[in-house]
Amino acid sequence: MAWIKVIDPSKATGELKRLYDAVLKKRPKIKQVMQIQSVRPSTMRATNVWYADIMKSEASPLTRAQREMIAIVVSVENGCLY
C-alpha cells in the first residue's frame, strides 16, 4: 500500500484552507480521496471543477442518480472503497 503525504485540515493554510473550508460547509469531514491532493491545492481545485462538471451538468442525458450508480459500479469492480 502506498503512503501519500497529506496536509491535515487542522494544519491547512492559504488556498488549501479555503478549499477545505468550502468542503466542510457541505460535509462533516474531508475525505481521504480529497486529502491526497492536499500538497497541490491547484490540482484539488481543478479536480473539484472537473467532478462538478461531470456529476452536476444538466447537459448530460443521464440523471445525477444514474451517474452516481455508474460511479459505484466502477468503484466496486475496481475494488475501491469509495
Describe, in short, the structure shown.
With 82 residues, the protein is mainly α. The protein is built from four helices and no strands.
Structural notes for this entry:
The protein is an all-alpha fold and 82 residues long. It is built from 4 helices and no strands. The model has no long low-confidence stretch (mean pLDDT 91).
Question: How many alpha or pi helices?
Answer: 4
- Shape call: globular
Class from helix and strand fractions: mainly alpha
N-to-C order of helices and strands: HHHH
- Poorly predicted runs are none
Counting DSSP E segments of at least 2 residues, the number of strands comes to 0
**Over all CA atoms, what is the radius of gyration?**
14 Å
Strand content: under 5%
**What kind of oligomer do you see?**
single chain
User: How many angstroms separate the termini?
Assistant: 16 Å
Largest sheet: none
**Helicity, as a percent range:** 40-55%
Mean pLDDT: 91
Fill in the keyword field for this structure.
82 residues
Strand and helix layout:
Blueprint: H1 14-24, H2 32-35, H3 41-56, H4 64-77
